[in-house]
Design a protein that fits this description.
single chain, about 250 residues, alpha+beta, two-stranded antiparallel ribbon, 7 helices, 8 strands, about 15% strand
């Protein structure tokens, strides 16, 4: 899908290696992260937000990369304007290079590994807060999803509190959002692979219809209840992309 395609390299990319995986950060990643945090109007809060988004998305993609490694596949991580991608690399087969085809259950595990890494990071942070004598105040989004409202720490002042609160928010809230059954999110990939096992002939088409309906409903909920224009536009666009895939493939 166009929104989630790999951007071409630029001279301004940040390149480094993490746990043996090549990582490339496109310059537009930083711009989008700043724009998403710009509403605060506070330069310090914007800086904290950019750092939290960078760490959180990198941990998410590292979860995918480690899952690929479990099945013998090398991969590279790219952070770009739409978030991040973990791209498996071809494997040498004798004198040739070949793409390894994974089964549905393997693909499900890889898809869940990304949000799972974020949830694990959040759990470690919460444990650290509690063990240090602090606490995490939570609220329920839409009356259902528990999300951190504030991390109260016995040290570090407001800056550390803002950083920890934002880190928990991104990894819990966006981890849950990423599990929704909308392509090409991880939840959409899980839905596709589950339906392919149930219905190998028509599973892909059914998963796309699930994506269209779920994406449209989430877009409406985001606009009318969460008051988030960003989420409304994002999920509306993803629903439209899934509908286009239906028209083009079936």
């Amino acid at each position: 899908m166009l929104l989630f395609q790999v951007p071409p390299p630029t001279r301004y990319d940040l390149n480094f290696t993490l746990a043996g995986f090549p990582v490339r950060v496109h310059p537009l990643f930083w711009l989008i992260a700043v724009l998403l945090g710009y509403s605060s109007g506070d330069p310090l809060q914007i800086l904290i937000w950019v750092l939290v988004v960078f760490i959180s998305i990198l941990v998410h993609e590292l979860g995918h990369a480690l899952a690929f490694r479990r099945y013998g596949l090398s991969s590279q991580i790219v952070l770009h304007f739409a978030g991040g991608l973990t791209i498996p690399e071809s494997t040498r087969w004798g004198s040739r290079w070949a793409n390894v085809v994974l089964g549905p259950n393997q693909n499900i595990f890889i898809s869940l590994a990304g949000p799972g890494a974020g949830f694990l990071l959040a759990a470690i942070v919460i444990a650290g807060v509690v063990l240090s004598g602090g606490s995490v105040v939570t609220t329920r989004l839409l009356g259902v999803i528990p999300v951190p409202a504030m991390a109260l720490l016995p040290f570090g002042g407001n800056v550390l509190s803002m950083f920890v609160t934002a880190l928990l928010w991104v990894n819990i809230f966006w981890g849950v959002i990423n599990l929704l059954p909308v392509h090409p999110l991880d939840g959409g990939s899980v839905t596709r692979n589950v339906l392919l096992q149930v219905d190998p002939v028509d599973g892909v088409r059914k998963s796309l219809w699930v994506s269209v309906i779920a994406g449209a409903l989430i877009a409406l909920a985001a606009f009318f209840f969460l008051r988030s224009l960003y989420m409304a536009v994002l999920f509306g666009f993803l629903a439209f992309q899934s509908y286009q895939s239906l028209q083009g493939r079936f």
